[in-house]
């Protein structure tokens, strides 16, 4: 199993393209953990689209010093 972890903070212009590239990987033994670090733009909504359609994506949403995994 290969784990990819990436922080995101207000990167709505790039996060969709980045996650689409990851989603196109054919290896199924991948896990993508995306850590939202309190973004105030649409980054979380974009990440959630990938979480809902691809089981390899996980979101950790940090806001106000809290951590909540989706």
Q: Can you list the strand order of the major beta sheet?
A: 1-2-3-4
Strand percentage lies at 35-45%
Instruction: Point out poorly predicted stretches.
Output: none
**Shape type:** globular
- Please state the CA-atom Rg, rounded to the nearest Å: 11 Å
- Secondary structure tally, helices: 2
Write the layout of secondary structure elements.
Blueprint: E1 2-8, H1 12-23, E2 30-37, H2 43-53, E3 57-63, E4 66-69
Parallel strand pairs: 1-2, 2-3
Antiparallel strand pairs: 3-4
Helix pairs in contact: 1-2
Give a verbal description of the structure.
Strand 2, helix 2 and strand 3 form a beta-alpha-beta unit. The longest helix has 12 residues, at 12-23. The protein is of the alpha/beta class. The radius of gyration is 11 Å and the shape is globular. The chain has 2 helices and 4 strands. Helix 1 (12-23) packs parallel to helix 2 (43-53). It has a 4-stranded mixed sheet with strand order 1-2-3-4, with helices on one face. The mean pLDDT is 91. The protein starts with a strand and ends with a strand.
